[in-house]
Amino acid sequence: MRHATKAQIKWAPWYEVDAPRLALEKKAMSTRFPQFTLRMLEDRNLAWFGKLESNNNNQYEIAVVYPPDFPTSPPAVYPVTPSIEVRDGRGNRLKHQYPDGHLCLYYPSDRTFQANTTAATVVAVSAAWFFAYEYWLQSDKKHWPGPEAD
Domains, the chain, ranges and CATH? Predict the structure, then answer.
């Protein structure tokens, strides 16, 4: 019996393997965030694009990008417009953002994101992130509401 080589193995994206999950994601987003549209990126990952409005009437366009191993890993949320970089006063490190710019929504070790969490929940958590961001700006960048890692 011959074994397949890595070059011969082709992995299907999660949304082709799990059509019911894709249907669940679409339903959750259309119900809670109908202003978002689903697009396929050049790398064949799926992403939702849409705008959130803050309590201060500011608009934030975001991209919610599904990882290849979804739902094992959560979607990443990237601010599209306006461009946002949250830097702390200690060493100019990114604060509540990863080096590639996506928002830090969960402590990786607290298991807040579960495999049954939908993109709609991730968008709702993103809205809370923008609330905290605006609060931080209003405090002259001195206080981020809520718990923080280090």
Answer: 13-138 (3.10.110.10)
